[in-house]
Amino acid sequence: MDYVCMYVIVDRHLGQRAIHIAQANGAFGATLIHGRGSAENVKSPIFLNMNIEPEKDIVIMLIKKELEDTIKGKIYEEMELVKEGKGIIYTLPVSEVSGLVEQNK
Fold first, then answer.
1. Nearest to 62 by CA among 15, 95, 35
2. Cα(24)–Cα(5) distance, rounded to whole angstroms?
3. Domain ranges of the chain
4. Are 86 and 14 in contact (CB under 8 A)?
5. Is 61 exposed, middle or buried (0-12, 13-18, 19+ CB in 10 A)?
6. Is 103 exposed, middle or buried (0-12, 13-18, 19+ CB in 10 A)?
7. Fewer CB within 10 Å, N side or C side of the chain?
8. pTM for the full predicted model
9. Nearest to 20, CA basis, from 75, 67, 72
10. Per-residue model confidence as pLDDT tens digits over 75-89
11. What is the 3-state secondary structure (H, E, C) of the chain?
């Protein structure tokens, strides 16, 4: 079975929504990582002499290649990623997978 690795980067607390959308469209699991954005053209707001960095959720999923367009399209549409600053989504090819238990519905 061919897989791709899908990455979804959105504002903090929105990653779980991307996971729910993906699971509703055939994905089985995901990893959610919290991070901070560092875009050069975005000035961080200052509060009490501290820079407030934009916090992000990074969702990483291994999904079947046949589900890639559906899942990517649904997340893009439902999370309104077409709007500037809402987030990004991309996939990378996976050449080999080990330790993944194939799940059948």
1. 95
2. 17
3. 3-93
4. no
5. buried
6. exposed
7. C
8. 0.82
9. 75
10. 999 999 999 889 999
11. CCEEEEEEEEECCCHHHHHHHHHHCCCCCCEEEEEECCCCCCCCCEECCEECCCEEEEEEEEEEHHHHHHHHHHHHHHCCCCCCCCEEEEEEECCCCCCCCCCCC
As a residue count, the chain comes to 105
What CATH class is the domain 3-93?
alpha beta
